[in-house]
Each structure stands twice: as C-alpha cells, then as structure tokens.
Specification:
Elements lengths: L3 E11 L7 E5 L6 E9 H5 L3 H4 L5 E3 L12 E5 L1 H11 L1 H7 L6 E5 L3 E7 L1 E8 L4 E2 L6 E9 L2 E6 L1 H10 L2 E3 L5 E2 L4 E8 L6 E4 L2 E18 L3 E3 L5 E6 L3 E8 L4 H5 L5 E3 L9 E3 L9 E7 L2 E8 L1
Parallel strand pairs: 1-4, 8-12, 9-13, 17-20
Antiparallel strand pairs: 1-3, 2-7, 3-6, 5-7, 8-11, 10-16, 11-15, 14-16, 16-19, 18-23, 19-22, 21-23
Helix pairs in contact: 3-4
Length: 306
C-alpha cells in the first residue's frame, strides 16, 4: 500500500499562562484550534487512528519562555517547529509514533500563533456591600450592625481594565446574592467579591460581621401632654389626660430609654370650627424605635377662661 492518505485532527488551543505581574492584552493571533494534518502511506495510517492516539479531546496549552518577557510588555510569536514540538509533548503516544522512523508528513493549520502582553498595574479599590441581609420572612429580629473587612482590596489588571473600573464603578461589590443570617448576636460570613472583567482582586473575598438582635414590644403610659399656643388667661383640660404608648425595639432598649425622649403635644392653633379633638404630635421619634403607636392619637379638650 504505497498510496498516501491524509488524516486530520483538531487540537484546541489555550493561551499561555503568564507570570502574575503580566497579562495578555491582545490574543487575536491565537486561534481557537489548530488542525493537524498527517500524510503517510496507507499501511502506516492503518496501524493507528488519530482518534486512538488522542483518546481524549486534545488540547494544546501554549508554553513560553518567561525569561523572554520584558518588564514594559511586548509581542511574542510561536512558529511551526515550536508548535509541533509542543503538540508532540502534549501526547506521549503521538510523539513516540512519529519518532520511530515513520515517513509521515505533519502539517499545521495555522502554523503560527502570536500575542502581545503588558505589565499589570496595581490599584487600591474600595469595597461596598452589594447584597441584602435576609433574616427570614417571619423573623422578629433586626440587623443592628454590619461591618466588613477589609474595606479596601488590591486590584491587578491591564491599565485599560483598571482605568475602566475606576471610571465606571470606582468600587468593587460583594456577591449580590442575599446573605442569610440565622444566628442572633454576632456572626461572621465569608463573601466573595465580584471581579470586573480583566481584573484580579487580592483578596478575592471579604468577611462580613453581622450583629442581630431580637425585637420586643413594650408599653407604657404618658401623663405629661404639652399644650402649644394656648392663649394667655385660659386653661385647658384634655380627655383622656394620659395616653398609652406601644413601641417595637431591640430587647436591649428599655422603656426608660424611650419614655425620656417622648414629649407628645397638642397645638391650639389647629382648632377650627366644629373641631372636637386635638391631634397628638411627637416632635421626634427615637432612632432605636422600629414602630411606635399612641392610643388614642387624638384627645378631647375643654378650654376655660381663668
């Protein structure tokens, strides 16, 4: 069988791995795959199949001499001879067969790859919490404190990638998925960071500290209701003269903490013809309170001249 035949196999190509301080900035010269065409006598080709030689889908991970990299970046290429050597190194059986005097011709399509590379720049970037805290749908708890460490990470990337990050975002976000917190008191959670395209973050995660406290309803009575804008020479009586206050706050907040900050009042200037009640007002609601209710929210009145 002196006739020659050709068999082909497609080998996927992966870009080379560069040292951490470099990155490929243009890999258009690296094809997604290289076709290996083997031409040999029929009896030689009958002794094997390319599928047999490559039992798994063949992949060529390009290798380079890192000693050839320059600090300010540059261009690298790999020609036919070096590509064939690397292909043979990826498959020992393939290499041994064609080193044993086989009169075969091996051609590569394409037979040349190239890429350019550049040094990475380093930038300190702030981190923000981009998720939500999930305490459970029916949870009678609240988040009282959240802390994140570190608040600043180091971003490595090509100058164009870092500039784009600073221009469009300025910060990097944590994973936006809801953070489920089941524990009361203090708990710690490791949360991944979202790395923008072409940017490597160190560290690539942060630790979120959450402080959760149970909520509790409290009730007390206020008898001191202030009256504003009462004309001189008049007295006023309110009915009822005491109101019940119910508030919701974390269990560490006492009734005294809240009652000392509440100063309900009525305003005589709100009186109009036919008005039977004056609305109760609060000048401010303490920050510790999640909900506050007064009963009643308006009182009847009797104004008498002294």
């Amino acid at each position: 069988m002196d006739a020659t035949y050709t068999k082909k196999v497609r080998i996927e190509v992966e870009p080379p791995t560069l040292p951490l301080k470099f990155a490929i900035d243009n890999q258009s010269g690296i094809p997604p795959a290289i076709e290996v065409a083997i031409t040999a006598r029929g009896d030689e080709l009958l002794s094997y199949t390319l599928e047999g030689l490559f039992s798994k889908a063949p992949v060529l991970k390009l290798a380079i001499d890192t000693m050839m990299l320059t600090s300010d970046g540059g261009y690298m290429s790999i020609g036919n001879e070096e590509l064939l050597r690397q292909i043979r190194n990826t498959n020992e059986l393939f290499d041994n067969y064609f080193d044993n005097g086989t009169n075969a011709q091996i051609r590569l399509f394409p037979d040349f790859v190239s890429f350019s590379y550049a040094p990475l720049v380093e930038k300190q970037i702030g981190v923000f919490f981009g998720g939500q805290i999930n305490l459970g749908e029916e949870s009678n708890r609240m988040l009282v404190d959240l802390d994140m460490q570190p608040e600043v990470v180091t971003a490595y990337g090509l100058a164009t990638s870092i500039d784009s990050l600073i221009r469009t975002q300025g910060l990097v976000s944590t994973d936006p998925k809801p953070l489920v917190v089941r524990e009361d008191s203090v708990s710690y959670h490791k949360v991944a960071l979202v790395s923008p395209h072409g940017v490597r973050l160190t560290p690539d995660s942060v630790t979120i500290k959450t402080v959760v406290a149970p909520l509790r309803y409290n009730t007390f009575v206020i008898t001191d209701i202030q009256v504003r804008n009462l004309p001189e020479g008049y007295n006023i009586r309110l009915f009822p003269s005491a109101i019940k206050v119910t508030f919701l706050a974390v269990s560490s907040v006492s009734i005294g903490d809240i009652s000392n900050q509440l100063h309900p009042y009525v305003d005589i200037d709100e009186l109009t013809e036919g008005t039977k009640k004056l609305k109760l007002h609060l000048p401010n609601i303490p920050k510790q309170v999640q909900m506050l209710q007064m009963e009643p929210d308006a009182v009847e009145y009797l104004i008498e001249q002294q």
